[in-house]
Amino acid sequence: MAGIADVLTESERTNWLKSLLAIAIAKSGVEKFVEKEATTLHGNIYNAILSSGAVACNGCHTANLLKCPTRKICIKVGAQCTSMHDTALKQPRPCPANVCNRVLDEIAKQHRFSNPSWKNTSANHWSSNPWQIAKAYFPPDGYTETSSVQDTDFNGIISFMMNCKHFNNTFSFPIAPAKPHPPCILTKAREICRTIRHSSTSKVTDTVLQDIFITLTSLLTGPQCLAHDAAAQEAASKLAKLQSNVLKLTTADIINYENSCKGHGAEVEWFNFDGELIFNKITQDQRLCDAEEEELVLNMSTVTVVTRTQWYAKSSKEGAKYMTMPVSHMFIHHTDMNECVSQTECVIEMRKIQHLHQDINGWADIAYNFVIGQDGGVYIGRGWDRVGAHTLGWNNVSISFAFMGNFTDKLPTDDALKALEEALVLGVKLGKLTPDFKLHGHRDARPSMESPGQKLYDRIRKHKHYEPIGPNIVTVSPKSPV
Ligand SMILES: [Zn+2]
Ligand SMILES: [Zn+2]
Fold first, then answer.
1. Ligand 1 center to residue 49 CA distance, Å?
2. Ligand approaching nearest to the C-alpha of 64
3. Would you state the pLDDT for residue 286?
4. Tens-place pLDDT, residues 227-250
5. From CA 19, how far away is CA 13, in angstroms rounded?
């Protein structure tokens, strides 16, 4: 079974992905602690103000509480203000309860550099959501939509801890000390985050990776608060496992980490195959591969077609080779791997097949032109026109449909069989298959093969287009698999 190192041949690229995962793990380790501290900070601020008899207010916008102009926020002044005070409702005015303005003062007082990020935070939610106050300590932009620790990235969380004086007593070291003091662990962690997220090469050297593990582990095991925090210790133990390549992740972990990596230029997807981890960095360009072809298929289709984009296909490894259309032969295969009964399952199975064919077998792409799931979905492999790697000797003159699963002792579902029929009708309509195309089983061309499975083979031999491959049929000379 493949692990990280098998999937990614370049070790520095693997290091980069490991770094991203390490950051996501470290984030999961500090979330509970930081959330709790945000609540404490919120309580401290409001208790002090409300104990004087004031009533909490939720009717002020941040803009109401800030004068115009406010440094780094207002571009022009007064009625001309084009950023914060741009509507009648957002003009500066006092808080009717005399509360929000005092909260604002307190937030500013707690800021280590007296520089709260007012653009991120919504004052009308201050009384009800402690995280809205935490957001005033984040980097200046980019967090307006964030409303919980879970949907905040590690950089935002670290910034909160660095910029808010509330955390002075929760760490054993001085936070963000001025030079010439060396940077504290939080500063280092924030630097790591920035470096990794903005790495244009998506590569990390062994030395840097080592440094990342040391910094994040020190953060999670620091003697004061986090050392006594269960989630932080669990994360520290996961980091150690990731470092020694023995980390296993649950599906819940994967979804969690996936979310924490969103929106940082690189979209990362983690797939958990039989308890082992495979992950890929998917760029926008790769996702759009073969978009034109897919559009053509979709527009004309009555079949449930699942595009390469939809199953998160990786790009083909080399320039595609095309067949002359229409072709007059098609082959039925079975994958002899897992069955899948829902699109979610089939997507994972498609990824597995592609991984096997591309990374283990060394082929350019998934072997088949189309793959059919038990859910009745037709998953685009190489599509109609591209030369496949499915049937030795026949690849450049035939189209293949593979059923996911093993059909030695049973047939594919009715939905799956119906999907094949509809896809064949579509193939003729699109001019990809000749109207009198010949349908064969994989083993007709390769008698030593079990594929497409006895039961399925028995079934297709009754198909009106079925023809055995005999001496009267002109075969093309064998070509090596693409
Ligand atoms: Zn203004
Ligand atoms: Zn108010």
1. 27
2. 2
3. 34
4. 889 999 999 999 998 888 766 655
5. 10
Say which ligand is closest to the CA of 65. 2
What is the pLDDT, as a whole number, of residue 79? 67
What spatial distance separates the first Cα and last Cα of the chain, rounded to whole Å? 24
Taking the centre of ligand 2 as the mean of its atom positions, its distance from the CA of residue 101, in whole angstroms, is 7
Ligand 2 centroid distance, CA of 155 (Å): 30
CB 339 within 8 A of CB 405: yes
How high is the pLDDT of residue 276? 36
Number of neighbouring beta carbons within 10 Å of residue 12: 15
Weakly modelled stretches of the chain, pLDDT under 70: 1-11, 13, 77-79, 199-202, 246-302, 318-319, 470-482
Query: What separation in Å is there between the alpha carbon of 80 and the centre of ligand 1?
Result: 8
Q: According to the model, what pLDDT value does residue 469 have? A: 83
Which CATH architecture does the domain made up of 290-460 adopt?
3-Layer(aba) Sandwich (3.40)
Calpha distance 282→428 (Å, rounded): 34
Angle at 407 between CA 402 and CA 410, to 5 degrees: 140
- Residues lying with their CB under 5 A of ligand 1, a single-atom ion: 68, 74, 81, 84-85
DSSP state for residue 316 in the 8-state scheme? P
Find the 43 Cα to ligand 2 centroid distance in Å.
Answer: 17
Distance between Cα 162 and ligand 2 center (Å): 27
| 355: CB partners within 8 A, 6+ apart | 2, 7, 278
Nearest ligand for residue 63 CA: 1
Q: Give 131-139 contacts, CB < 8 A, sequence gap 24+.
A: 131/35, 131/38, 133/38, 133/41, 133/42, 133/45, 133/103, 133/107, 134/34, 134/38, 134/41, 134/160, 134/164, 135/160, 136/107, 136/111, 137/110, 137/111, 137/162, 137/163, 137/164, 138/163
Q: How far is residue 204's CA from residue 209's CA, in Å, rounded to a whole number?
A: 6
**Whole-angstrom Cα Rg for the chain:** 29
Instruction: Say if residues 165 and 112 touch (Cβ distance below 8 Å).
Output: yes
Q: Ligand 1 centroid vs 75 CA: distance in angstroms?
A: 7
- Ligand in nearest proximity to the CA of 58: 2
Q: How far is the CA of 76 from the centre of ligand 1 (A)?
A: 6
The pLDDT value given to residue 462:
94
User: What pLDDT score was predicted for residue 165?
Assistant: 96
In terms of phi and psi (left: phi > 0; alpha: psi -120 to 50; beta: otherwise), the region of 195 is alpha
Domain residue ranges of the chain, discontinuous segments joined by +? 4-60+95-277, 290-460
